[in-house]
Amino acid sequence: MRSEFAPIIRGVKLLVAEQSQLAASGPHFSILHRHWQPGTICTPGEMIAEIYLVHRRKRVALPLSVRLMLTVDFLARHKHVGQHAVQIAAGLSADKFTRQHGAYAGATASLSKRVSRASVKQQMMRLREGLRQAFRRAGLSLDPARVLISEKTTGNEVRYRLKAAVTWHHTET
Q1: Do residues 61 and 35 lie in contact, with contact meaning Cβ atoms separated by under 8 Å?
Q2: Gap between the Cα atoms of 142 and 150, Å rounded
Q3: Could you give the strand order of the β-sheet that contains 165-170, starting from the edge strand earlier in sequence?
């Protein structure tokens, strides 16, 4: 009888391990940069082509605008530190990768606007909705607020932090 239930027990153990990993490190995202310059690593001028949620051999594209993809990329590069909306806005406005996004492809004109504190708060809401849609398509019952975390401070400000495993991939075209 023991061998009869072995595959079921193994499957349950696998699901429990998967849930533990998701709880500890968050989901896995893969960010694809285009117009990569050989011999370099993530240089200003590259362009974010897509951001994927990777789950069980499945890649689900996050339905995000270019501005939101830049925000995710920025948060992923600074994921170990929660940041206030003002810090994110200043960081995005000053970040060389964000400012020169797509320069190798001649696509910088549409991204030259500065980012405001209010727009960051709006972006966080839109980003959570994009995460919700991707999680649903991947068959994951994750709460986007547990991935894009809002950390309360002693004042009335909120710090945002991305809780996820992130990898970057590059292609020349």
Answers
A1: no
A2: 15
A3: 58-61, 47-55, 28-34, 165-170
Q: How many CA atoms lie within 13 A of 59 on its CB side?
A: 9
Q: pLDDT tens for residues 123-153?
A: 999 999 999 999 999 999 899 999 999 999 8
Burial of 59 (0-12, 13-18, 19+ CB in 10 A): middle
Q: Do 144 and 9 meet the contact criterion of CB atoms below 8 Å apart?
A: no
* Predicted structure pTM score: 0.84
Structural domain harbouring 161? 2-170
Per-residue pLDDT tens digits for 6-40? 777 776 666 666 666 666 668 999 999 999 888 88
Q: How many structural domains compose the chain? A: 1
- Buried/exposed 87-126: b ≥16 CB within 10 Å, e otherwise: bbbbbbeebebbebbbbbeeebeebeeebeeebbeebbee
Contact (CB, 8 A) for 76 and 166 = yes
